[in-house]
C-alpha cells in the first residue's frame, strides 16, 4: 500500500482532522512505519497455529447466588439524604 498525500487528505477528512504540511509529512512517515510493521507480521509462518480466543486458560469460578443478608427498607432509608416515606428522592433526570 502506498502512502501518499491523497491518502493523508482522505484520512484526515474522514477523521475530521486538519494537518498542516509538516504534520501531514509526519503522518505519512508514521503510516509507513505502521504498514511496514504489519507487512513484517505477514512474513511469519502461522501454519498450524490456532487463533487466540482467550488470553488465559483460567476459567471463571462463580459462587452460588444466595441471599445472605437483607437490609430492611427502614434501615436502607435511614441514612438517605432525601426520602419520601418509602422511597429515595433523587434529582430529576428527565424533564417533561
Which structural traits does this protein have?
about 100 residues; two-stranded antiparallel sheet
Describe it for me?
By secondary structure, the protein is mostly helical. The chain is built from three helices and two strands; from the N terminus they run H-H-H-E-E. Strand 1 and strand 2 form a beta hairpin. The radius of gyration is 29 Å and the shape is flat.
In terms of topology, how is this protein built?
Layout: H1 5-14, H2 21-42, H3 73-78, E1 83-84, E2 87-88
Antiparallel strand pairs: 1-2
Distance between the termini: 54 Å
- Please summarize the sheet with the most strands: 2 strands, antiparallel
Count of DSSP H/I helices: 3
Rg, nearest Å:
29 Å
Q: List the uncertain runs.
A: none
**What's the helix-strand series?**
HHHEE
CATH architecture of the domain at 5-42: Orthogonal Bundle
Helix content: 25-40%
Give the strand tally.
2
| CATH class division of the domain at 5-42 | Mainly Alpha
The percentage of residues in β strands lies in: under 5%
CATH fold title of the domain at 5-42:
Histone, subunit A
Strand order of the largest sheet: 1-2
What is the residue-averaged pLDDT?
87
Which word captures the global form?
flat
Structural class: mainly alpha
Amino acid at each position: 500500500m502506498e502512502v501518499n498525500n491523497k491518502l493523508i487528505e482522505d484520512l484526515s477528512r474522514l477523521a475530521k482532522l486538519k494537518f498542516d504540511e509538516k504534520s501531514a509529512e509526519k503522518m505519512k512517515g508514521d503510516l509507513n512505519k505502521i504498514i511496514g510493521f504489519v507487512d513484517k507480521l505477514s512474513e511469519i509462518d502461522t501454519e498450524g497455529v490456532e487463533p487466540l480466543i482467550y488470553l488465559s486458560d483460567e476459567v471463571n469460578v462463580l459462587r452460588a447466588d444466595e441471599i445472605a443478608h437483607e437490609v430492611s427498607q427502614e434501615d436502607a432509608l435511614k441514612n438517605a439524604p432525601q426520602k419520601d416515606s418509602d422511597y429515595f428522592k433523587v434529582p430529576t433526570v428527565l424533564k417533561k
